[in-house]
User: Which sequence fits this backbone?
């Protein structure tokens, strides 16, 4: 958060508002405590009980239960944030949780492959190791995983052609090979693979961008995501969810970008 | 560093200055070498002796000894930078060094919990593992760690009310749940916990932001930090210290932000 | 990529272009498949065969073979990106590949030491561990590694003097110790060490900056790199190569910076 200091002089009305907010928050906290189940690992409960309480009462007792984004989608968002951040230690838990929440094995492997392009090869290769162990323990067979070949989706061809021309124009002048890979491999091949829906590709791309603080690419992908069926409410919830998995500052930096994209689309 | 090429034509006076600087630097280096103790691990001395020399003579022989920031505070800054960067391999060493420098066990656990919000849950959970082993080896009992509940600090209530209204205004319109978590959990609960002073919460928040390159949130937190008692000299030293723990570019990007915050406060 | 939506209305001509692009891409893909050797680890082929195919056919079958950047330089770029990103799991493979491609052992250790300053001490220290094992297995003796002392290169002294004055001016006012370390240690000592050529120091610095998304320092270092002998074609290829090792968004964010530096130098 920045520039909060720009708000005018404090007044008594604020103190009253704060008191009210605190009262509501306190009632909510009590309610959460009742509802909370122990999700935090035993070691977190032992060493950092306050963090365990936030984990159980807020993150899993409240955030994950919010209906604005389905648990399956929250798992996709979380998995994307973990891969983008290189959080291998947390992948086992969240790959399992994702499978429990309805993410299919081949959606996990397709997400890893997709994010090789958006978070880099090393992040993806490290995720493969974690996925392998999870699949093995659950008895998931290789034929349930995304295959090398995939049906080729036909996207919005006019829009794609436009995009390809823009890439050639903007990228090609400086780095022609990168423009070629972008058009023929990234968008011409990867985004057309059927092992992940375009909507889910947008979901994990946006999540990875927010988690890694790459706001410059967000406007294009928020728009593409909404074209692919993600709603404003879902995207706001993605930002909120990622605040917990990549830290508040990443979410706060994504907010104004989302705000301006949303505003431009409702004109 | 950028735009250094914008300075005018070279002149002989510069060469003279440089010669003088080199002379002083060389004398300083000799002095450092005498004072330096071996801090770099044996393997670093063996494989990268130049890095070991920089570690012993500059980082520990000079930076850590500068009186502008106490060793205890340098440990807090370093620990925050390590957590923010996910440098688990270095945590054991620096948790131990921190404890030796007067950081209390419950300040380490409170810092981990605090940074869950600023660097994301996965970073915090990974730090818990490293802390557990350090505590166990030193015979630190669980009752010395930050408890789940904490005394509730009363902060500058008028300022907090303003901040809460600004959050509702700026965040609430796009992501109402995130605004609620920000006001009722992050600032309404975490920042009011007594297991870390507001000054130390600012210190570790600012350190994490600089280390992760999140300049957008820096103006708010530099101001909050100075309101909480951190001085301009201490904050400049935090930036200098973090140059070594997160790399020069992070420090260089934080400098102009600090400069403009400092300037605005001295008006 | 951003702002691609700003291009005008779609037209039939685009669809025709796309069809042509797809045809060419498909022919290229077939050609690549024939040429490709299995580089992806067995586990990647098993769990994520599509990622393995992209690895074998595109990354190693095409990118690494492009003559615009020598394999030895690609290894330097990759090693720098891995160190900057903290990808320790991939270092063993790429340290070995680098040595096979002609990178000398002391260039690896000098790169690690150099990047301590640009990516932070923890990243460098973690890389030392990976390097040690690789050197041991290959029977590389310690006397082949960069020594503590090094011959001192004389750089462009007038330019250096200018740079030093600019640092004193811009950094010194806020953080005098950081200005001193920058002039006497970073540029006065590290950059003058002879165990890495200035051209290679620029190459790994630029690679680390792009991989970590630190565009603010890029203009200075792209210019310095070109002064040190790197060409525009090589730098464009560095960006392209890093798209695969740090993700597309990092490359896309570096492109406009490179574009404006290139443009300013050709005036």
Assistant:
């Amino acid at each position: 958060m920045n520039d909060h200091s720009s708000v005018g002089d404090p007044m008594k009305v604020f103190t009253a508002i704060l008191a009210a907010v605190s009262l509501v928050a306190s009632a909510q906290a009590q309610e959460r405590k009742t509802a909370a189940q122990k999700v935090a690992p035993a070691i977190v409960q032992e060493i950092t009980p306050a963090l365990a309480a936030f984990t159980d009462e807020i993150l899993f007792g409240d955030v994950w239960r919010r209906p604005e984004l389905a648990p399956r989608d929250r798992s996709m968002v979380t998995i994307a944030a973990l891969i983008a951040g290189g959080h291998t230690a947390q992948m086992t838990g969240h790959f399992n949780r994702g499978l429990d929440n309805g993410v299919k094995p081949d959606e996990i492997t397709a997400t890893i492959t997709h994010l090789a392009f958006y978070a880099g090869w090393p992040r993806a290769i490290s995720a493969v190791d974690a996925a392998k162990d999870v699949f093995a323990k659950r008895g998931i067979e290789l034929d349930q995983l995304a295959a090398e070949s995939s049906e080729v989706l036909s996207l919005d061809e006019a829009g794609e052609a436009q995009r390809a021309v823009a890439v050639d124009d903007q990228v090609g002048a400086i780095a022609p090979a990168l423009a070629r890979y972008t058009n023929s491999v990234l968008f011409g091949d990867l985004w057309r693979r059927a092992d992940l829906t375009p909507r889910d590709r947008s979901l994990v791309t946006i999540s990875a961008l927010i988690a890694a603080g790459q706001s410059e690419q967000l406007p294009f992908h928020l728009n593409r995501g909404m074209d692919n069926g993600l709603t404003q409410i879902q995207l706001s919830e993605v930002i909120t969810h990622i605040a917990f998995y990549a830290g508040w500052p990443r979410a706060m930096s994504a907010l104004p970008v989302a705000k301006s994209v949303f505003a431009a689309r409702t004109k």
